[in-house]
UniProtKB/TrEMBL annotation:
CDD domains, per the entry: cysteine_hydrolases
Species of origin: Actinomadura hallensis
Protein name: Ureidoacrylate peracid hydrolase
GO molecular-function terms, A-Z: hydrolase activity
Domain of life: Bacteria
InterPro entries assigned to the protein according to its UniProt record, in alphabetical order: Isochorismatase-like_dom, Isochorismatase-like_hydrls, Isochorismatase-like_sf
Residues annotated as domain Isochorismatase-like: 14-203
Entry keywords, A to Z: Hydrolase
């Protein structure tokens, strides 16, 4: 739907989810398990997300990145009695284990991370679950959360829903999120548009921001 509101950049924050080797690199664990096609759409999305990072920075909008980090001996996961989505598919996936290259941000993403940027390390799908994300957003005056990254139907969707439950306004530029499954991707965009926020484009987002409200000294 059109983004027919005026946004003050002082109330906006950008969250970029899990642009990591394990999810997006052709030598990462997802590609090794499912083939290069499994990371094609996430890789194609990365330049759009990074372009959005720079456009937001130019308006003084703060940016946060998340990294999914798994512990190989995670006893919480081991207690589950219902097989995981990977177990049901018979897939062994050592994804983004702590301390591995797989868990690191893509090299091209690291180039856009500033020394004072906060990277939110999470151990479950949502960027809010057992992290300090909500606190830093509140302390930064963020009311409107722009969400980019991967995977649309899991980590992105979980974060969108948690943001909505915490009374943040959610905006999702469609070209800045990606999934390995087109149907799942489109279903999340549809449910977001129906319930949780606005699905738009980066250009429409920029048009809704008023340059005259940019924070002094941050452009």
């Amino acid at each position: 739907m059109p983004l027919d509101v005026t946004l003050d950049p002082a109330e906006v924050g950008l969250l970029v989810i899990d642009l990591q080797n394990g999810f997006c690199h052709p030598e990462g664990s997802r590609a090794r398990a499912f083939g290069a096609d499994a990371v094609a759409k996430p890789r194609a999305m990365v330049p759009h997300a990074l372009g959005l990072v720079e456009r937001c920075r130019a308006l003084g909008i703060p940016v946060w990145f998340t990294r999914q980090v798994h512990f190989p001996g995670d006893r919480g996961r081991a207690r589950r009695r219902i097989p995981s989505h990977l177990d049901r598919r018979g897939v062994k996936l050592d994804l983004c284990h702590q301390g591995t290259w797989d868990a690191e941000l893509l090299d091209e993403v690291k180039e856009h991370v500033r020394s004072d940027d906060e990277i939110i390390v999470k151990h479950r799908a949502s960027g809010f679950y057992n992290t300090r994300l909500e606190s830093v957003l509140r302390m930064s005056g963020v009311q409107v959360l722009v969400v980019a990254g991967t995977t649309t139907s899991f980590c992105v969707d979980s974060t969108i829903r948690d943001a909505y439950a915490r009374d943040f306004d959610v905006i999702v530029p469609a070209e800045c999120v990606a999934d390995t499954d087109d149907a799942a991707h489109e279903a999340v965009l549809a449910s977001t548009e129906r319930f949780h926020g606005v699905v738009t484009t980066a250009d429409e987002l920029m048009a809704a921001l008023r340059p005259e409200t940019v924070r002094p000294g941050t452009g």
